[in-house]
Design brief:
With 230 residues, the chain is of the alpha+beta class. It is 33% helix and 26% strand. It is built from three helices and ten strands, in the order H-H-E-E-E-E-E-E-E-E-E-E-H. It has a five-stranded mixed beta sheet with strand order 3-2-1-5-8, with no helix packed on it. Strands 4-10-9 form a three-stranded mixed beta sheet. Helix 1 (15-47) runs antiparallel to helix 2 (59-86). The longest helix has 33 residues, at 15-47. The two termini are 31 Å apart.
């Protein structure tokens, strides 16, 4: 989850998010170097006392400021395309979960388990226990097995929503009448927090997302207990 005064991205909890963090750092360094070059040129032009009224063009400069941006764009585009392919559809997911956005809560359906579905409401502040986070905790978490390819089918029941968990590198719009797909693998056990990232009405800020990644044995025990309680 995010912490107070945080400036950077959340710690990566999935391979896709690790790649996104690396790409962010890669692109940020390029932007930093370009900014320094531009500032240096501006400073040099403003402060120089040299003038040449007869310079009409320069083929060398034209070549440099045409080729250099093209090279920079290639250095950004190739890693970006690689990540897009890595985040593409999973061919053989171990688990598929359908997330449905409502005003203003989420519901989850485990399509591989009959009758395993539940609603996930934000826990009111007065009901929080020590160690839980205000506006982020829910009464029923989305539990998944760690180190397993997970496919999430995302839709909405009423208006536009967006299912986003930054630590897992997932953000997908929930559109009424349409199924969007996101895929991820949780690298380690933990609890990962997200929120609806599409303004959906008065209580948009009060429909958090909580994904709990656990070992496979614990997930099987949880799913069995949930099915017995239905």
């Amino acid at each position: 989850m995010a912490y107070p005064s945080q400036l950077g991205l959340q710690n990566a909890a999935s391979p896709a998010m690790e790649e996104l963090v690396h790409f962010h750092d890669h692109t940020l360094m390029i932007a930093y170097l370009i900014s320094n070059l531009v500032l240096y040129i501006i400073f040099a032009v403003v402060t120089t006392k040299l003038t040449n009224k007869h310079a009409l063009d320069s083929q060398e400069i034209e070549i440099i400021w045409t080729v250099l941006p093209a090279v920079i764009l290639i250095l950004i585009a190739l890693p970006s395309l690689r990540i897009l392919y890595l985040m593409d559809e999973i061919n053989d997911p171990h688990l598929t979960v359908k997330a449905i956005g409502h005003q203003w809560y989420w519901s989850y359906e485990y399509t591989d388990y009959k009758d395993l579905n539940f609603d996930s409401y934000m826990t009111p502040t007065q009901e929080l226990t020590p160690g839980q986070f205000r506006l982020l905790e829910v009464d029923h978490r989305m539990v998944i097995p760690m180190e397993s390819p997970i496919r999430v089918l995302i839709t909405a029941d009423d208006v536009l929503h967006s299912w986003a968990v930054p630590a897992l590198g997932v953000k997908m719009d929930a559109v009424p009448g349409r199924l969007n797909q996101a895929a991820f693998i949780a690298s380690r056990p933990g609890v990962y927090y997200g929120q609806c990232s599409e303004i959906c009405g008065a209580n948009h800020s009060f429909m958090p997302i909580v994904v709990e990644a656990v070992p496979l044995k614990h997930f099987e025990d949880w799913s069995t207990a949930m099915l017995e309680n239905t």
